[in-house]
Amino acid sequence: MKPLNAGILASFAFGAAALFQAAPANAQANISGSAGFSVGMMGYSQTDHDEGAIVGDFAFDGNIGFDLGGWNVMLDVNSVLHRDNRGDFDHYAPWGVTSFGLHAGRQFGNAYVGGFMGGNAFQGNDASTSNGYITGTLWGIEGRIEPASMSGVSLFGQLGRANMVGDAGDTAFIGNFARFGADYDAGNGFGFTVAAEFGRSPNIFEDSGDWGEYRLATVEGRLERGNVIYSIGGEMGQFTANTEDFATSNRLFLKATIPFGPKPKRNLLKTPYGPGLAAAWAETLD
Question: Does the 3-22+35-285 domain belong in CATH 3.40.50.11540?
């Protein structure tokens, strides 16, 4: 991580700690979170090498949050791996991506407003090995609201900036991104979440001076029984490099999540991994 980015992260962490210092002295800290694991299948196609395949995959995610007097701080990690063992990722498809982040903000009644800072670990040609991973940074603002007139509904959104360099001076995703969606709790343990994410790198993608963009959409239905949340869902992705090349990826998965703490909540404001995944696809499409 570059010193500047490390300094930003340290400042953000210091600010999060200051929020807790500002909380009322008699406030009680509530610690909550969840851990999830999923298995699935991912099918992809890409035009640069005219390749496509269906491969198995797995993913995990976890978060832990601290709620103190209306102030909130959360750490999270989200990782998906769909390994294609036929050769180097830049001839076929990225093997996977991991996001990690620190979130901090304030609860105002039924609304939450905050910010996040973190990174993506993704595959790039600047890595030490042919299929190795490197890290880029991202940061932004986020919010969540439970409208009083929409029982069981939570709306959420994130706006951010990413700096993901796969091959210095050649391939990268450096640009803005957005993620937004809705969650519905239907009662009796049933519910579903939908989300959309998109981003654009205007001046570099598969080559310096070119543009690239990505789009991700997820749908997940769930059933909570006992201390476990069972889910079935899908993630659809599209990655475009200029007007020359594009790739698609479609993933179906089954998931089990174990929440913990006095006020466990689904992590609707997870750290996005779209920018890092797009940077890895830029390498493949180059």
Answer: no
